[in-house]
Structures are given as structure tokens and as C-alpha cells.
Amino acid sequence: MLTEANRFRYEYMRPPMISEMLERCPLAIQPTGLLEWHGDQNPIGLDGLVAQYICERAIVKIGRGALMPTNFIGTYGYIRYPGSVVYDEQTVERIFIQQYQELAKLGFKVILILTGHWGAFQEGALQRATDAAKKEFAKKKAQVRLFGLRWCDFLFPKEAYGGHGQEGETSIAWRVGEAYDIPLVDVSGFKTGNEEPTLYSLPPDIPRREPESWPWLKNLKDPAICSPAIGERFVKTIAGGIAEELRDAIQELGIHMQ
Q1: Which pTM was predicted?
Q2: Which CATH number do you get for residue 140?
Q3: 34 neighbors 47 (Cβ within 8 angstroms)
């Protein structure tokens, strides 16, 4: 964990500290991800860990608000691949709705759920949850700003990260490991070409779109392609974009950060 973010961690706060934080700036950032295969070189929790670190960097940059504990419950991804723990769309959508509801109940006025996992199923669940919560708060005439976003939404072009488990995600995970002083990434055994992992057998009614084999297109051992320094460039851009977006939302609500 980034120690600079400790003063913003909701789970570390005592009730009087929560009240003071809400008075100063009612902003909540919720990182979310999925326990999902991203190749043997990457940790199974890459999605959540990357979202968490980006959110840590963003809230430190903003200097106000609360950072919620990372949620590792996500919907369909590489569900048959080794190590993946995946939930159905309805469960995840409902969790996102309740996160918005609970954070609004606490008194937060600007709420971001930042997902490190995406794809049609995850993005659909988050979009439906965000739309449903916005509709609910509009009926109540509640002055709340909700954001359900992917970290790659702050990159231009959006595909610059390289795709699932490839050079961009591996570089960012490598940077996270460097920041946390944990060996999260190990490219020593990496090879380009097609990988054929042993896949889990699943009932036919469970949606899946992942391929039978996985293509590694670029040499992740090449520091010009994949490195913590490259990951840092991604993180700096993304965290800066998030901070700017949330500061704008705070100002639009007429909240003066104290």
C-alpha cells in the first residue's frame, strides 16, 4: 500500500474522523477489480491492485476525501483460465448499486467506482448500476455525482495500454509491486507466442468469450516495451486525469474544499 494514502483510507478512520472528512470534502473513491488470470508473469489480483494504486495516487493528488477498501468482486472475464474467481453479472451489478447507495447514505456527494477489470460483461454491469443509482438519486432530488469508469478511460488513445495482460498492464503491475515493495511481476520465464493454459470445465450456460489459447505478441522482457518506468508514466497520466475529473465535480456541486 502507498503509505501517503493512509490518512485517506476509510477503514482506518474513527467516526469523528469520518464526520470531519465529510465536512471538508464529501468525496469517495472505490477501487474495484477481479481475481483473474493475466499470464504467469502477473499476480492474480492485478485488476484490483492496479485500480487500488491508481486510486491511492489520485486521492493523494486531490488531498481530500476517502479511499474505500478495494473490492475484488467482478463479473465474467477469463473465467476458465487458471486462478480466476468470477461472479455473475446480476451479483456484481447489485453490489455496485449498493456501493453507491451506501456511500450516499454516509453523506458522500461525489462517488467514483474505478474498475481495473473491464470487458462487455463488467462494463455493462457497472454502467447499468450507475444508471440505476443516478435515476434513484434524481427521484430523491439528491445532489450527488456518480462516476463508474475504467482506468483506461483516462488514456489517449484508449488502447495504448496493449490489452489484457500485455505490456501496459504488466508495466503498471510492475510499478505497483515496486511501490509496495512486493515482487508482483516476474518476467524471467516469459516467452512470446501462443500459450495454452489448462482451462477449467464450466457448465455451458456460463458466458465465456476468452480464446482457447493466449497470444503473447510482444517481448515483455524488453525494457523499451515493458518496465516499471513505463507503468509509472501510465499511472501518472491516469491519476492526474481522475483528480481533475473529481475536482471539477466537486466544484460543480458548489463544494469548497476546506
Answers
A1: 0.96
A2: 3.40.50.10310
A3: yes
Element (H, E) at 139: helix 120-139
pLDDT at position 156 over 90: no
Q: How confident is the model at residue 206 (pLDDT cuts 50, 70, 90)?
A: confident
Q: Is residue 98 assigned to a domain?
A: yes
Which residue's C-alpha cell is 462487455?
A: 120
With CA atoms as reference, report the closest residue to 173 among 40, 18, 14.
Answer: 40
Residue 19 lies in a domain: yes
- CA–CA separation, 165 and 81 (whole Å): 13
Listed in sequence order, the residues at least 6 apart from 26 whose beta carbon sits closer than 8 Å to its beta carbon are 65, 107, 108, 109, 110, 255
**The total number of structural domains that make up the chain:** 1
- Which cell goes with 93? 451489478
The answer to whether position 158 is within a domain reads no
3-class secondary structure, 218: coil
Q: Is residue 169 part of a domain?
A: no
Work out the pLDDT band at 76, boundaries 50, 70, 90: very high
Rounded to the nearest integer, the mean pLDDT of the chain is 95
Q: Give the C-alpha separation, 7 to 37, whole Å.
A: 32
Strands 214-216 and 193-195: antiparallel
